[in-house]
Amino acid sequence: GISQATYFNWKKRYGGLLPDEMRG
Q1: Would you state the pLDDT for residue 10?
Q2: Can you tell me the distance from the alpha carbon of 13 to that of 11, in angstroms, rounded to the nearest whole number?
Q3: What is the radius of gyration, based on Cα positions, of the chain?
Q4: pTM over 0.70
């Protein structure tokens, strides 16, 4: 999976939407 820090960065950039590749 991805780290919380990375997840938070994605949330900031993409409004919480992660690409399918990053999911799961």
Answers
A1: 78
A2: 6
A3: 8
A4: no
What is the number of residues in the chain?
A: 24
- In Å, how far from its chain's centre is CA 20? 10
Which tens digits make up the pLDDT trace of 1-18?
778 888 788 778 876 566
What is the residue type of 14?
Y
Per-residue pLDDT, 8: 82
DSSP one-letter string for 1-24:
---HHHHHHHHHHHTT---TTT--
Structure tokens given for 16: 């919480």
